[in-house]
Amino acid sequence: MNNYIDLTDIEDLQELIKEALQLKKENSAANLGKGKTLGMLFFNPSLRTRLSTEKAAKLLGMDVMVMNAANDGWALEFEDGAVMNSDKAEHIKEAAAVLSQYCDIIAVRAFPGLKDRDKDEMELVMNSFKKYASVPVINLESATGHPLQGLTDALTITELKSSKKPKVVLTWAPHPKALPQSVPNSFVEFMQKLDVDLVITNPEGYDLNQDITKDTPVIHDQESALKNADFVYVKNWSSYKTYGTILSTDVSWTFGAKKLELTRNAKVMHCLPVRRNVVIDDAVLDSENSIVIHQANNRTFAAQAVLKRLLSPSA
Ligand code: CP
Question: Which family, according to UniProt (predicted)?
Answer without folding.
Answer: Belongs to the aspartate/ornithine carbamoyltransferase superfamily. SOTCase family.
